[in-house]
Structures are given as structure tokens and as C-alpha cells.
Amino acid sequence: MANTAPAPDKPLVVLNQRTIWLIFGALLASMLLSSLDQSIVGTAMPTIVGELNGVEHQGWVITIYILAIAIVMPLYGKFGDLWGRRWPFLVAIGLFTLASAGAGFSQTFHELVIWRGIQGLGGGGLIILSQAIIADIVPAKERGKYMGPMGALFGVSAVAGPLLGGLFTDHADWRWCFWINIPIGLAALVTAWFTLKLPSHRSGRRLDVAGIVLLTLATSGIVLVTSWTSLTGEGGYDWSDGRLIGLLIGTLAAAAAFVLVERKAAEPILPLHLFKNRTFTLATLVGLVIGMGMFASLAFLPTFLQMSTGSGVTESGLLMLPMTVGVMLTAIASGFAITRTGRYKVFPVVGMAIATAGLAWLTAITGDMSMILFGVMIFFLGAGLGLVMQTIVLAVQNSVDPKEIGTATSANNFFREIGAAVGTALFSTIFTTRLTERLTDVFAGSGGAVDTSGGAESLTPAVVAQLPEALHDGVVNAYTDALAPAFWYLVPLLAIGFVLTLFLKEVKLSDVAGMVARGEAVTEAPATVAAAAPTSTGAAADSADDERAR
Please, which residues have CB within 8 angstroms of residue 445's CB and are 6 or more apart in sequence? Predict the structure, then answer.
């Protein structure tokens, strides 16, 4: 018979291992859906925009999804803390699944963009609430073995997304890039409906409407500025365009106003006092660095493979599998090691060191290199990434008050998403500029035999494969000469991330789940209930207080 703790004012949730595993399964499925859809349309994009007549605006298919996710991340985190996470999570799954069906049945390009935006509104909640819910039902001391697989999903989706997109486009229909989400989403929704028995509650404090509006404006501005400056040709802008300058000024003004509003808000959407917490600040900065450095560099490797090896979309995805294996192995192994030892600092330190070295190693890639050697390189890079990503989320969750788990988790993910947008734009600008210069030199000697009026963006792997041997080698070398040295611009970023991890403090992992610490749940284990009952805030809150005191 389950034990109960003193909490007569509200019903308590009883957590047992069977319930936790069922919830965990729904969370994994939900996170996979959201992270997969950030990359699955990339390889299918030419077919999609060609069929729906949206070539000149194709960037919006990806931009609107990233924008929606970035905007709602802090909102889901805060709303979950204020009102409970059950209904926000169910709404997020419902929105994502409905929008996936809508995107798959879209008959015009504008319809697709609208449905992709709605997908992002649901997808942002799936990422944040999944991480916050696992913190609610599993103590930090045991959470590593759950967070490891969650971290591995990001690595899996980064490679599986383009691979699946290519398979669906080549052998079925691009619409299956979206329809595949429907059965998984429905299964996750049904599972969550019956197993996600999380408490709902009301907050008497006034919602931070001004903060939400200003954060939305600032986030939109950041994503749009970085997206538009990273595009070449149609849809892109350069800094001579007054509209881009105006957008940047408006973004900075909204960000400054947001900080001022948050300092006075009764219930801020992003509490500034979190940044007084050393662990939160350092871990969030590491997440920002990972977003700027790692995801920016990985975005261009499949293109390099297609150009250098002549492989198709599907084949280039398969060649990226070693990175996925590296992420999965280290993310899962480190999660179990953290659960066994109770110590976590060593993993982000070692992970950032490996990732920095791995990125530096990628500066040695060549157009004719062995794919086995390339696989070893990206396996090394993925191994470093797997040690860091979910470990820093665990560190953040363990260092804050249990009442702010959702807010802190969403803030950490939000800054990583912003870092990815900014880093990708900067790296794209560096890479494209170098590539254009080198291709100009390559085709200067072609005597007009090859039409290059479309620029670098007009070169496809199929076109390159048909070029005369000398010209083909010149184009491949141009891609290599543009990409490999560009990695050096990112290496210092990751080195900074490594230095930041050295200053992380090893805060003792809480042995009480978030819901138990807040007095909203009990476990079936009498010893655990007895240990949790005397303090309503629990060990995690004590750790947070100690951390803030430091």
C-alpha cells in the first residue's frame, strides 16, 4: 500500500517505477518528434518548394519552425511552474500532431509555412516540458540514466532527420516527413493522457504579459536577423539594407526593455535572479557556446560529403552515422555513471575538451580523404557532445529551487537555441564568402564553358558530378578550402566553453524528486517518503540555497 505524506490541502500523486517508465516512454517519443522536425525537411526542401512553388521563400519553412520553438520555450517552462505541466504538455502534443497532419496535406507554400509555425508552437513545449517532467518525477541522483537517452535523441535526430527526409522523398512522398509524426504523436498523447497524472494548480500572482511580449519581439528579431543574413540570393539581406538595420535596432531595444521589465515584474517570465546562481549561469553559457559552435559546424558537413564524394542525400546521411553513435554511447554511459557515482562535473569538462579537439581535427578534412577517417573524426566530435548536453541540464535543474525547475530548464534550452541560430548565421557567412571567392577563381579559367551565373547556390552534387575532371576537382577543393579553415573560427568558442566547465561546482545531487520536494507527490518506498516528509522544499532546494549563497 502506498504511503502518504502530510499534505491535506491537495491530493498527492503516487510515483512508482511502472508509472515512471510509462511516462518516460511518452517523453522520449515527444522529444524525438520535436527534435527530428528541425532537420527532416532539409533534404526534402528542393522537392517541397518546387512542388508548392515557393523556391524564392524556402528559408521560411525552417525559419518559422525555429522561431516558434524559441519564442515558446520560456513560456512553457514558466506556465508549467505556475499551473502544472500536465495540460501544457497535452496541448503541446496535440498542436504538434495536428500541425503535422496539416503540413502533410498542405496544397500551397503559404499553408505549409503556417502549419510549420504551429508545429513549432507545440515542438517547443515538447522539448522543455519533457525535461522538466522527468525532473518532477525522478530525483536528480537517479536522473542521469533518464537524461542520457534524452540527450542521445538530439544526436540521433541531427542525422536521422536528413536521412529520413531523403528516404521519404526518394522512395515515397515528401509529405511523409510530416505524416510520420501522426501515429507517434497520437501514441504519445494517449500514453500521456492516462499516465501523466501530474497536479494542476493556480498561481495568484499576475502574469508577466509585458515580459512575454518583449521577449517575443526580441527573440523574433534575433532569429530573423540571423536567418536573413545567413541566406544568399533571394530572401537574403546584407548590412547595406536599411530594413535589416532597423530590425536590429528594434531587437536591441526590445531586449533592453525586457531586462528592465523583468527587474520589476511580480512573476517574471525569465527571473533575473537565476543569473546570480553560479551553476545556472555557467551551464547556460556552456549551452550557448555549444549551440553557436557545434550545431553551426554540423549543418554544413552533409553538403561537403555530397560535393566531395558524389554521394546522394541518403548516402551522405549514412556517412554521418558515426557521430550519432558517438553521441548515443557517451550520453547514455555518462548518465548511468552519474546515477552510480552521484558526480557530474567531470563529464562536461571532458566532453568540452574532446569536442574542442574534435572540431580542431575537422580543419584537416580534404576532398579525397578516407571516409573511415572522416567517420572517426565525427565519432570523436559526437562523443564529446554526448557528455555535455544533458549533463548541463541536470546541473541546472539540481541547482535551482524545485518551484523553478521548468523556468530554469527552459532558459538553458532557450539560450542554446539562440546560440544555434546566431552561430549558424555567422558560420554560414564565413563559409559562403570563402566558397564564393574560391569558386570564382576556379571558374575563371573555364572560358565560359560552364554556366555559373547562379553562383555557388546553383551548384548541386549532380551538376558537380558532370563537370570535367579538372573542373570537378577544383570545385571539390574549393568546398574543402572554404569549409576546413572556417572551423578554426569556431574552435575558440568551444575552448571558452571548456574553460567555463572548469568553474562549475559539484553540487550534491538531490535524492528527492521535484514533485515530492514541493509536497505534490509521494513514492511507494516508505524510506523515501519518510526522508522527504520533514522538509517541504527537499534536498534540491537546499542545494539551490547553498549554491546561491556561494
Answer: none
CA proximity to 164, closest of 57, 35, 61 = 35
Residue 246: closest CA among 276, 224, 213: 224
What count of other Cβ atoms lies within 10 Å of the Cβ of residue 102?
17
Alpha carbons 547 and 508: distance in angstroms, whole number = 10
| Contact of 212 with 75, CB cutoff 8 Å | yes
The domain limits of the chain are 13-195+267-443+459-549, 209-266
Phi, psi (rounded to 5 degrees) for 523: -105, 170
Helix (H) / strand (E) element for 74: namely helix 59-83
Interatomic CA distance for residues 170 and 168, integer angstroms: 6
Residues in the chain: 550
d(CA 239, CA 326): 39
Closest CA to 407 of 276, 280, 532: 280
The number of beta carbons lying within 10 Å of the beta carbon of residue 238 is: 10
Contacting residues for 411 by C-beta, under 8 A, at least 6 apart: 74, 77, 270, 274, 280, 284
Phi-psi category of residue 519: left, alpha or beta, with phi > 0 → left and psi -120 to 50 → alpha = left
CATH topology for 13-195+267-443+459-549 is Growth Hormone; Chain: A; (1.20.1250)
CB atoms within 10 A of CB 511: 17
For residue 409, give the nearest of 90, 140, 115 by alpha carbon.
140
Q: Which three cell numbers stand for residue 456?
A: 555557388
Are the C-beta atoms of 385 and 348 separated by less than 8 Å?
no
Question: What is the residue-level pLDDT of the chain in tens, covering all 550 positions?
Answer: 334 444 445 556 777 788 888 888 888 888 888 878 777 876 677 678 778 877 666 667 877 888 888 899 999 999 998 888 889 999 999 999 999 999 999 999 899 999 999 999 998 898 899 999 999 889 999 998 888 888 788 777 777 777 788 788 778 888 988 898 899 889 888 888 887 877 777 766 778 899 999 999 999 898 888 777 755 444 556 667 778 888 889 999 999 999 999 998 888 999 999 999 999 999 999 999 988 887 767 777 777 777 777 666 667 777 888 888 898 899 999 999 999 999 999 999 999 999 999 999 998 888 778 889 999 999 999 899 899 988 999 999 999 998 899 999 999 989 988 888 788 777 877 877 777 777 777 777 655 555 554 445 555 556 666 777 777 777 777 778 788 888 888 899 999 999 999 999 988 998 888 888 877 777 765 444 333 333 433 344 444 444 444 4
Q: At what angle do helices 109-137 and 405-444 cross, to 10 degrees?
A: 140
Q: Give strand pairing partners of 523.
A: 15
Q: Maximum distance among all alpha carbons in the chain?
A: 85
How far apart are the C-alpha atoms of 56 and 506, rounded to whole Å?
Answer: 50
- Cα angle vertex 113, ends 258, 117, to 5°? 40
Helix (H) or strand (E) holding 413: helix 405-444
Give 15's strand partners. 523
Distance from C-alpha of 349 to C-alpha of 344, rounded to nearest angstrom: 9
